[in-house]
Automatic annotation (TrEMBL):
Keywords linked to the UniProt accession: Glycosyltransferase, Transferase
CDD domains attached to this UniProt entry: GT4_PimA-like
Record-listed E.C. numbers: 2.4.-.-
Alphabetized InterPro entries for the sequence: Glyco_trans_1, Glyco_trans_4-like_N
Pfam families: Glyco_transf_4, Glycos_transf_1
Residue stretches in coiled coil: none
Name under which the protein is recorded: Glycosyltransferase family 4 protein
Keyword Transferase: yes
Domain Glycosyl transferase family: 189-338
Claim: Ubl conjugation is one of the keywords in the record: no
Enzyme class label: transferase
Domain called Glycosyltransferase subfamily 4-like N-terminal: residue spans: 15-182
Length: 377
């Protein structure tokens, strides 16, 4: 099958769960001998070294240079897509002329480009697929419904039900296709051999609760002999500067924890994987979460998880995580303490085994096969 994915920040080592999952899925589909092309923004083309990633073709959208961080970022992106719609149609039609596609998948109602175009102006007989990864912005969801996609997919029940509540006509029409992880075998380190740190594998944007995670760490730092590692790298679809500055100011006001918090520079996926596998604990302090790929990756390497129940996390991590009632520093601190005690007394082991079994359901080979089945109907 010939499949075109459209996502403005599709690329390797881009700091985002959607981006990583789409690359995992594309690589697996290619391994299964499907032809895969990714249509993405002009300034997000990755540098792909090695033969593994040459199996995917990347096409840069000449008219879609993703802006650097600005106020009202989503509105700026909408204006960019609307004002360049005609040029994008011409570019896509040239792509369709050069190679026949069986399916065209818009990954996200905003970042997936296609909902901003007129279907009748696209010269292809391919099936159009809307793949929701977030449920924000009713305006963008409405636009995606009006386009008239042949299939509607969502990354989680949480996203699908959130859309259906606002748009009852979509009830029962959205199939679930979750994010996925690579099938490759990983080395599982016993919890007793882990390094003494908590890893917060999240970009520094307000909805990820990283500032609250740092405040929670201060509360437990005197009773738990673990350090804290944060992801300080920037990302393609916004700036970490406001949250990063808040965190640095907080650390400056609390010098007793300054030597125990490491703000890592921009991490590659391989480096982030290594930290998840080495950590004594992964902390997911999100206030919003449409799926929770960082948590899934921690499950896959048997790392204890402390998490909120935001969005899809409560469902994904049922029976696996030590839950905090919310992202408040006090509740996060209490959950971290409970997790540490369960590591010490060994009671965490059952959760780790449950997580590992659950993670295997989200392997790329399974998700890729489910996608092909959906497209074949």
């Amino acid at each position: 099958m010939n499949i075109l994915f459209c996502h403005l920040t599709a690329g390797y080592n881009i700091f985002g769960g959607v981006e990583r999952s789409i690359i995992n899925l594309a690589l697996e589909l290619s391994r299964q001998e499907h032809r895969i092309v990714l249509y993405t923004g002009r300034n997000t083309i990755p540098s792909l070294d090695g033969p593994t990633y040459k199996s995917i073709s990347f096409v840069k959208a000449e008219y879609l240079n993703i802006p650097t961080y600005c106020d009202n970022f989503d509105d700026t992106l909408r204006r960019l897509l609307i004002s360049n719609a005609g040029a994008i149609v011409r570019e896509l039609n040239e792509l369709f002329f050069d190679g026949k596609f069986d399916a065209i998948i818009a990954v996200d109602q905003l970042w997936g480009v296609i909902p901003f175009l007129n279907r009748n102006s696209l010269n292809t007989k391919a099936k159009f697929v809307m793949y929701y990864h977030m449920s924000h912005s009713n305006m963008d969801i409405n636009r995606s419904i009006a386009f008239g996609f042949d299939h509607y997919l969502a990354v989680s029940d949480f996203v699908a039900s959130s859309i259906s509540r606002v748009f009852p006509s979509m009830n029962g029409k959205i199939e679930i296709l979750p994010n996925c992880i690579s099938d490759k075998n990983v080395q599982l380190k016993p919890i007793q051999q882990r390094k003494p740190f908590i890893f917060c594998n999240a970009r520094m944007s307000p909805e990820k609760g990283v500032h609250e995670a740092v405040q929670a760490f201060k509360e437990v730092s005197e009773i738990i002999p673990l350090n804290l590692k944060l992801c300080g790298g920037d990302f393609h679809f916004g700036s970490n500067a406001p949250v990063l500055e808040e965190i640095r100011q907080f650390i400056d006001r609390n010098p007793n924890i300054s030597r125990r918090i490491d703000i890592e520079p921009r991490l590659t996926w391989k480096e982030a994987d290594a930290l998840s596998a080495e950590a004594s604990m992964v902390l997911v302090a999100s206030k919003e979460e449409s799926f929770g790929l960082a948590a899934l990756e921690a499950m896959n390497v048997r790392t204890p998880i402390v998490s909120t129940r935001a969005g899809n996390l409560g469902s994904l991590l049922d029976g696996v995580a030590i839950f905090s009632e919310d992202s408040s520093p006090a509740n996060l601190a209490e959950a971290i303490s409970r997790c540490f005690r369960s590591i010490q007394d060994g009671s965490i082991e059952g959760r780790l085994e449950t997580g590992l079994r659950c993670a295997r359901k989200f392997q790329a080979s399974t998700v890729a096969s489910d996608l092909i089945k959906a497209l074949s109907n």
